[in-house]
Design brief:
Layout lengths: L7 E7 L6 H14 L3 E6 L2 H4 L2 H4 L15 H8 L3 H14 L2 E6 L2 H9 L5 E3 L7 H9 L4 E4 L5 H14 L5 E6 L14 H9 L2 E6 L5 H8 L4 E5 L17 H18 L8 H10 L2 E4 L14 E4 L10 H4 L21
Parallel strand pairs: 1-2, 1-8, 2-3, 4-5, 5-6, 6-7, 7-8
Antiparallel strand pairs: 9-10
Helix pairs in contact: 1-5, 1-11, 7-8, 10-11
Length: 341
């Protein structure tokens, strides 16, 4: 089974292709050049997504062109056919970036498995959907589970449902606030720490904020997967472009995110070899404060603390005081134990 490297960056193209394969390929190219590890799309059918009455809604404000009359027109435009999926998957393979998608019905779970996606993403809207979760789990591939809208109990139930089918499936949780965009004080990034402690699973962050700060903060809090909506132009028509990262922002997230992750290091307290080298020069040693005659009983006034820290450690001052000098010591001599009786 595929193991996601840490940190793992997902450029969420989603529906930002606007139903245009040429645009989808440009987004893939740009995501690759920004350093993303994977691109993610959304796989759905109009017939299984919404009730028919909803599609005839003409009152909603649609961020599309004038040809769009209702929600059905939008869904028709942004739905990827199965042949579209194959074309984009083949293109991603050529560009050496991982292709996968979020299935929004069970038929697309089967289809995505058939074309051999390496893992599955379950959307926040379907965390409580027993049919999609069970069908995905039956494929025995790693699962990225987004937790927007969800209570702790619902997350427990989704994980339990997966584990009843197979305890060997790798599960990755994504902390997510499913608002577009969420308010800063609703983001609750500390949930990353809580989810990891509660479920003992790898935890990432699915980001709907504007900008790069939340992603970088999430990595600092331990997120090992970052999923960010991605566009090449925030002013394009469509629902998600305005809250998506542009290429400049995605590059920053990937570049600085990898740096931050490497900075986190280990929980165990230890001194690096690099720091040990600095320590010798920056710490102080016990040195002779004035000329000390051979055979003299050394007093505190005979001693000072000065750099470098290559001699007797200053916390041994009580041990050195009242010792007898084995030989004469000039001012600023760094004391060694061999100098003492």
């Amino acid at each position: 089974m595929i193991k996601l490297k840490k940190p793992f960056f997902i450029a969420e193209i989603g529906i930002n292709h606007n139903g245009n394969l040429s645009l989808a390929k440009k987004l893939i190219d740009s995501a690759k050049s920004c350093g993303a590890d994977a691109v993610k799309f959304q796989s759905f059918s109009k017939d299984t997504l919404n009730i028919k009455k909803l599609y005839k809604n003409k009152k909603a404000e649609f961020k599309f062109d004038k040809k769009i009359k209702n929600l059905e027109d939008i869904i028709d435009r942004i739905t990827l056919s199965k042949s579209d999926h194959k074309i984009l998957q083949k293109y991603c393979k050529k560009k050496k970036i991982i292709f996968f998608s979020t299935p929004l019905d069970t038929s697309y779970v089967d289809f995505l498995d058939k074309i051999k996606v390496p893992f599955f993403k379950i959307a926040s809207m379907d965390l409580n959907n027993p049919e999609i979760i069970s069908r995905v789990a039956l494929k025995k591939k790693p699962i990225i589970l987004s937790t927007g809208f969800s209570s702790i109990l619902e997350i427990h139930e989704a994980i339990a449902r997966i584990k009843r089918i197979s305890k060997k499936i790798d599960i990755y949780l994504l902390h997510c606030v499913s608002a577009y965009p969420p308010k800063n004080n609703n983001l609750n990034l500390k949930n990353i720490i809580m989810l990891k402690k509660t479920f003992n699973l790898e935890v990432g962050f699915s980001d709907h904020t504007i900008g790069v700060g939340a992603c970088l903060a999430a990595i600092a809090l331990g997120a090992t997967i970052i999923e960010k909506h991605f566009t090449i132009d925030k002013s394009m028509i469509g629902w998600d472009h305005s809250i998506s990262a542009n290429p400049s922002e995605l590059k920053t997230i990937v570049r600085e995110g990898r740096k931050i992750y490497s900075m986190l290091g280990d929980y165990e307290r230890k001194i690096s070899e690099q720091e040990k080298n600095f320590k010798k020069n920056m710490r102080r040693s016990i040195v002779a404060n004035r000329f000390i005659q051979k055979g003299k009983v050394i007093s505190r006034k005979d001693l000072a603390f000065k750099r470098p820290g290559t001699g007797i450690d200053v916390n041994k001052i009580d041990f050195v005081t009242n010792r007898i000098a084995r030989l004469s010591l000039k001012p600023d001599t760094i004391l060694k134990f061999k100098h003492l009786k």
